[in-house]
Design a protein that fits this description.
alpha/beta; Quinone Oxidoreductase, Chain A, domain 1; Rossmann fold; 2 domains; seven-stranded mixed sheet; six-stranded parallel sheet; 9 helices; about 30% strand; globular
């Protein structure tokens, strides 16, 4: 089979690998679609993503979907031919967590994730023609949800988790700062959760156009205007430390910021005084627990992710696809790989 393999910083190849066979408790999936994520780009550009450093070649990709073509022994509840996506996280160990963290499996200390170098050996992702997956990680797609849309259940789950961290959004006004793929999905998730008015802000016009198509009621081009002021609930999705001072100032006194954009893991200068003097609540949001199931329900209910998917490439053009995904001047949002 062919697979998109990162060998080191700047070294991406489409390699021929042995076809996998499903072992006991596994499902063999013919992969059809994959979405390129920021972590895929980080491994390609830098040979690392966050604290996870690439030590060996690794298949990329965790936003994926396909169709079941084989079953290992002992697998029930999944049929050959069924379209599926995945819960890409696998807990390592006994899975026990403190009572205060019950249900928050995204905070479990040791997690294997599709396309992650956090462990050695690394965990291969799904940018390949075939993938054998533990049956417990397989999620059948609802009727009417294509594998192309189903591949975005994972990033939509990230957005739904962030929205869930904010509590009930019914009737509320929301600001989303940063309208890359996750920010645009937060826009859609907030509207799906009942937000009355969603303002989306960014410095890239094409990204604002995607946010508009994803349901934003208002967009703000930050190259010519400032963030709106006194917004009671803000989702910070840019992950840009330089934006934090303005985001804190835009949040109403006593308001809440949900930090869904990944912030740098190194020290950076930032002005945080408003966090104290305005008595703001700043909430972190990391990946998701089981919101991938909620994402599939939302997709079946009609949440439209099509505007997010701006570019499509065949598997053999993976490096070009990565280049387009990494360059916002191309107008790219979510770049899709046709895997099969």
């Amino acid at each position: 089979m062919r697979a998109v393999v990162v060998h080191g910083a700047g070294d991406l190849r489409v390699d021929e690998l042995p076809d996998p066979a499903p072992r006991e408790g596994e499902v063999l999936v013919a992969m059809e679609w994959g979405g390129i994520c920021g972590s895929d780009l980080a491994y390609w550009r830098h040979g690392r993503s966050g604290t996870a450093e690439l030590k060996h070649p690794m298949v990329l990709g965790h936003e994926v979907a396909g169709r079941v073509v084989g079953l290992g022994s002992g697998v029930t509840g999944v049929d050959v031919g069924q379209p599926v996506t995945f819960q890409p996280a696998q807990l390592v160990g006994d899975g026990r967590m403190p009572e205060r963290l019950a249900g928050r499996t995204n905070l479990y200390p040791h997690v294997r994730y599709f396309g992650s170098a956090a462990f050695d050996p690394h965990t291969d992702g799904g940018f390949s023609e075939l993938r054998a997956v533990r049956a417990g990680q397989v999620r059948p797609l609802p009727d009417g949800v294509s594998t192309r849309r189903g591949a975005l259940a994972e990033p939509l789950a990230v957005a739904l988790h962030a929205v869930g961290r904010a509590g009930d959004l019914t009737g509320r006004t929301v600001l989303v700062n940063g309208t890359g793929p996750i920010g645009a999905l937060v826009v859609a998730a907030a509207k799906h959760a009942g937000a009355a008015h969603v303002v989306a802000a960014d410095v890239v016009r094409s990204s604002l156009a995607v946010a508009d198509a994803m349901g934003a009621d208002e967009t703000v081009d930050l190259t010519s205007a400032d963030l709106p002021q006194d917004v009671e609930l803000v989702f910070e999705a840019s992950g840009a430390a330089a934006a934090l001072a303005a985001v804190l100032r835009a949040t109403a006194k006593g308001g809440t910021i949900v930090q869904v954009g990944n912030l740098p893991g190194t020290a950076v200068p930032v002005t945080l005084g408003d966090l104290v003097t305005r008595e703001l609540t700043w909430i972190g949001s990391y990946r998701f627990s089981e919101e991938v199931d909620d994402a599939l329900v939302a997709l079946a209910d009609g949440l439209d992710v099509d505007p997010l998917m701006t570019h499509t490439f065949d598997l053999d053009a993976a490096e070009e696809a990565m280049s387009v995904a990494a360059d916002r001047s191309t107008g790219s949002s979510k770049v899709m790989l046709r895997l099969g």
